[in-house]
Amino acid sequence: LPPKPPAAFHEQRRSLERARTEDYLKRKIRSRPERSELVRMHILEETSAEPSLQAKQLQLKRARLADDLNDKISHRPGPIELVHKNILSVDLQTRWLGVDTALFCNRSCRRLLSNFCKTSCCRLLHGFLQSRT
Fold it and tell me: How far is C-alpha 28 from the chain's CA centre?
């Protein structure tokens, strides 16, 4: 077995590593970007709130965005309205429902409505598709 190096050697090595780390961190701090640069790069938010309130401000902003999105989704037109306005074609509508257009004869449609969906939306689509054929 080789002899153990003296404790002074370990202490010197530790202090050298510590000095190297300290120099590295000082260089990083000197070359770090300004706050305005971080805002421009969208890393930091531009805000006038105190740092202790910034997290709550961001949370409130996200909650407002989520509420706004939910409101817009709840007011968007349904598939029947899109078909009536000729925004969505009948073929695309039936594909959206997962139904082949060839199934839309009277008997198949009744079976489809009884098995697939009994909502007024499906019955409206059925009536609309019948009126177009």
Answer: 33
For residues 103 and 106, give the distance between their C-alpha atoms in angstroms, rounded to a whole number.
Answer: 9
Q: For residues 13 and 5, give the distance between their C-alpha atoms in angstroms, rounded to a whole number.
A: 11
88 is a domain residue: yes
Q: Answer whether 128's CB lies under 8 Å from 84's CB.
A: yes
Go through the chain and tell me how many residues it has. 133
Could you report the per-residue pLDDT of 34-75, keeping only the tens digit for each?
Answer: 989 999 998 888 888 887 888 888 899 999 999 999 999 888
Compute the distance between CA of residue 67 and CA of residue 73 in angstroms, rounded to an integer: 10
Q: Is residue 38 a part of any domain in this protein?
A: no
Instruction: For residue 98, tell me if it sits in a domain.
Output: yes
Domain span at 103:
79-132
Identify the residue whose tokens are 């199934």. 103
> Which letter does DSSP use for residue 101 in this model?
G
Number of domains in the chain: 1
pTM: 0.39
